[in-house]
Structure formats: structure tokens, C-alpha cells
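Re: the 205-residue chain
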Amino acid sequence: MNILSKHIELAAEQVASLPGIGKKTALRLVLHLLRRKSDDVEKFSSAISRMKEFVRNCSVCHNLTDHDVCAICSSPYRDKTQICVVADIRDVMAIEATEQFKGLYHVLGGVISPLDGVGPADLEINSLVARVTKEDVKEIIMALTPSMEGDTTSFYIFRKLETTGVCISVLARGVAVGGELEYTDEVTLGRSVVQRTPYVPSLMK
């Protein structure tokens, strides 16, 4: 960028490093912040800094929280016999928005993808197995994106849990194959949660 101020240029470069933000949009946002009052900019930067400092992963489900255990895991009103397994924290937000699921979650932190160098050991699968073993869990709901990577991850988890006796189900295929959960409309996603079906492994054993 050909900008007279190096400070504006550096700020725009940092904003442009965010996903989905191009250089022109980054510059427009930076110039907007420059026009804001100093107190407003201080509040903005302080909120980002405090978020980075205080937000952590829940020690139980690996969701985001300000505390050791998230509000969902610690709630006395959630059904602790059901655990919905998702790949990403954004999937938790998407399912919660449907208001159709009252159980707990387990965030894997991704899906098995050899091409991207992501294996089972890189995901929170062992901690899921530990939860099923130690807690009174009756159903595991696989809510992973219906793709090759998602199906591979579901199959791997099924093999790890098949001797525990826990019921394993999967979202109804109202979610399009290859579609990301976070971009699925709330009605379709909610219906998929409610109408979930028993998991049937489709990959070769």
C-alpha cells in the first residue's frame, strides 16, 4: 500500500491479516478508527487485549470461556447424559442458536485430515473417550460436517467408543453434504439435531 503514514500502513496490514478482510477494507476500517475519539479506540484495543488474556478453553469440553469450566458444562439445567461432538467452537454457537439441544458439547478442534497434517492425536478425541468412560453419558451425537474428513473422524470416534456401550447418533442429513454447520440455517440445523439417527459406520473397518 502506498500510504503516507507508516503507522496507518502497519495498522492496515494487521487488520488485513484477519480472514476475509482485504487491503482496501482494512484501510477503510483503520481510517474509521482514526476518526474515532481516543477513548473509543482505547476501549476497542483494550477489549481485544483482554479477550486474548482472559479467554481460555473449557477444561471439560474445550469450548471458549472466561472460567475454568464453561457456562454450558456447569449449568444444572443441561442434560449431562448427552454429548454433542463438534469440530469447531463456531459449531457450538450454531447449534445453540437453534435452541433445540439441551445437552453438553465436546469440541474436537478440527477433523482428521491427513492432507493438512491433522491426525487423531491433534484432536481432543482422547479427552472425549475419557468423558464417556468416567461420566454418565448415554448418547454421543456426531455433529461433524458431512464430508470425507468429517465422516472419517466420526468413524474413528465410533471405533474408539464402540465397546463402551454408549449410543452413537448422527445429525439427520438435512445438512447438505459438504456444507459447514455454521452456515446452515437455524431451522434446518435444529431439525437435523432433533431428527438425528443412529450412527451407521460407512467406511471400511
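The mean pLDDT is 88.
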